[in-house]
């Protein structure tokens, strides 16, 4: 996946096709790679209730456009971390005039050494999947939060296309039974959730329609590998939801 993301950020910075895709699918071009549209990003901001000057860590920030949006909306200081040097370089270059609100650094979610009791909030938008050990990652993030700090994560769990239906543990789709819920519980954290499964399905349907329309533009730019990746994601999620084997939640926990 590392090579894919390096290639992805290298080309999308100047891609009119991908910018149009993001505007039509997500509601705004924040160079999204995932399933969080503007409704979901704004729901995350509302759940956090950030104040000017709050210190926030975003894990898996990509090229920082979502972090920049959150900082602009709230006045909080966002530190974005991602394992893609290409994404981080773009974030640093684009936001050079906003250093009082934005900091970006290359980092692997599995090898972070976070300072204790530093952040008022930690955000993960579909990035915990890259953790090799959810329980350990949550424990490290918990230690990096100040007392009363908030851990807020968008997380989807469902059957992957290569997993047989009968082999998928459908009972673990409940918000209190997902692998992320198990990691939070193992760390003694209570949490609340919002269900975004219906929105996930609608977004998958919209992605497919927009991608079908924009295929010639992606092809003309020589970036069909992104088009194919996006199509595969949308089709897999749509199928799993229609089978009743996929769910998406916004998890919120306080230390």
CATH H-level homologous superfamily name: Vaccinia Virus protein VP39
Low confidence ranges: none
Q: How are the strands ordered across the major sheet? A: 3-2-1-4-5-7-6
Largest sheet: 7 strands, mixed
CATH class: Alpha Beta
Give the CATH architecture: 3-Layer(aba) Sandwich
**First-residue to last-residue Cα separation:** 32 Å
Beta content comes to 15-25%
Order of helical and strand elements:
HHHEHEHEEHEHEHHE
Basic shape: globular
Q: Can you give the helix content as a percent range?
A: 40-55%
What is the count of DSSP helices, taking H or I runs of 4+ residues? 9
The value of Rg in angstroms is: 18 Å
Number of strands: 7
Kindly describe this structure:
Strand 1, helix 4 (65-74) and strand 2 (77-82) form a beta-alpha-beta unit. The chain has 255 residues and is an alpha/beta fold. It is built from 9 helices and 7 strands; from the N terminus they run αααβαβαββαβαβααβ. The chain has helices spanning 2-12, 16-26, 38-48, 65-74, 85-94, 134-144, 179-186, 197-220, 224-242, and strands at residues 55-59, 77-82, 102-106, 119-125, 145-158, 192-195, 246-254. Helix 1 (2-12) packs parallel to helix 5 (85-94). It is globular and about 50 Å long. A 7-stranded mixed sheet has the order 3-2-1-4-5-7-6, sandwiched between helices. The model has no long low-confidence stretch (mean pLDDT 97). It has one domain: Rossmann fold (3-Layer(aba) Sandwich).
Furnish the topology, listing elements before pairings.
Blueprint: H1 2-12, H2 16-26, H3 38-48, E1 55-59, H4 65-74, E2 77-82, H5 85-94, E3 102-106, E4 119-125, H6 134-144, E5 145-158, H7 179-186, E6 192-195, H8 197-220, H9 224-242, E7 246-254
Parallel strand pairs: 1-2, 1-4, 2-3, 4-5
Antiparallel strand pairs: 5-7, 6-7
